[in-house]
Amino acid sequence: MLAHASLGRMNAIARLILHDRGLAEDAVQDALVDAWRDLRGLREPDRFEAWLRRILVNACNTQARRRSLRRVREIPVDASLGGAHHDTEHSIAVRDELETGLRRLPVQQRTLLVLVYYVDLPIAEAAEAMGIPIGTAKSRLHRSIDALRAELAAADREIARPREGLA
Length: 167
Hints:
This protein is mostly helical and 167 residues long. The chain has 7 helices and no strands.
């Protein structure tokens, strides 16, 4: 029953980390199986959520390692072609840009950003879920934010660059 109550949140976390619905579902399933097998190892039942989250993060990392390299070609859309922008269109564009930037980050950086900014965990709990010291988590978070900013800036430069062959 406890795992069932956490299922929606687990799916959301896994999808944000892996950016692949199928891999996310596999990671959640693997995490639940691992949790079931290791349930006797849970020493503090009141920490079930944190324990399960750590198992999920490990399962996501395993799925990311298993994933074969797939080449995805993204085609930038020229914003001037669409005419007037609505707030909804703008927010969707910003969300898509952010998701693209996250997708380009290594899994460890993406995981930390998801846990802190999407799941809204305190840095100490995110560090615990990832199995790293809090100081390491703080420095990785700083580097992850810098890396995301660099990816977003690179994407902006790519979009701003005139496309060759079009006149």
